[in-house]
Write a structure and sequence with these properties.
Layout: H1 6-25, E1 31-42, E2 46-57, H2 60-80, E3 88-100, E4 112-126, H3 132-142, E5 146-153, H4 158-183, E6 186-203, E7 225-239
Antiparallel strand pairs: 1-7, 2-4, 2-5, 3-4, 6-7
Helix pairs in contact: 2-3
Length: about 240
């Protein structure tokens, strides 16, 4: 062998070893990702209702005046029932012309304004659930003729969310252990964890539904329970 080539071959062999080590070190760390879901229920302590007054008249002014009078009476009654100003919010106000359009049943040549419609929408937060049916009934008597959407919620759902998170993580841990054992590997530390929450959904309570004590002529209302759901994704390292 040519002695002049030996230094070059020795240098190449020296550089080859660190390169192999670096390549081995750059291999991705084995890991496993699982999802877990937890759910907890909570009895609602608050109701949100939407009430609207719709008035029509020949002029916008007349329609607005009639609407203002009805809505003012409704707000005054709500305050008499103990609803605080912070729990009353105007959530929509519209003034729309009403038209008659040409068709085979009239002699109109073009669209013509026949009057105006004014709609005022109020969102009410009711903290005493026993008053929900009564307030709905009285509001209709005072002039509410549209709306009525109702949802039950919780002012502070943190306790239910905490419980749902714990259950979600417990489920994820159990899944990861089962998968690791089946694959013949050892579960390592948690590398990453993230969560997603869903909006609470009404959940009927069989045999223990909350029923507000209401007058016989008020609107019957059932509050039920709210279900809070949390989903977590947990990534673990694996040891061969």
């Amino acid at each position: 062998m040519n002695r002049s080539l030996m230094p070059l071959m020795l240098a190449a062999s020296l550089f080859a070893v660190p390169g192999a080590v670096a390549q081995e070190a750059s291999l991705p760390q084995p890991k496993i990702s699982v999802t877990g879901e937890g759910e907890a229920t909570l009895s609602p302590d608050m109701a949100l209702i939407t009430l609207a007054v719709v008035e029509e008249a020949e002029t916008a002014r007349e329609a607005m005046d009639a609407n203002n009078a009805a809505m003012a009476a409704i707000i005054a009654k709500l305050k008499e029932e103990g609803i605080e100003a912070r729990d009353l919010q105007t959530s929509g106000l519209s003034i729309n012309p009403q038209y008659v359009y040409p068709n085979n049943r009239n002699d109109e040549e073009k669209p013509r304004i026949t009057g105006y419609q004014v709609t005022n929408q109020l969102t009410v937060r009711i903290r005493d659930l026993a008053k929900v049916g009564q307030i709905l009934d009285q509001s209709v008597t005072l002039g509410v003729n549209q709306g009525g959407q109702i949802s039950f919620t919780n002012e502070d759902p943190s306790a239910a969310l905490t419980e749902a998170r714990k259950r979600a993580v417990e489920e994820a841990m159990a899944k990861a252990k089962t998968l690791a054992e089946a694959a013949g590997v050892t579960l390592g530390n948690v590398i990453e964890i993230s969560e997603r929450m869903s909006q609470p959904q009404p959940m009927p309570m069989a045999g223990k539904m909350i029923r507000a004590e209401m007058a016989a002529d008020s609107v019957p209302v059932e509050a039920g329970e709210n279900s809070y759901s949390v989903q977590v994704e947990v990534t673990f390292s694996l040891a061969q």
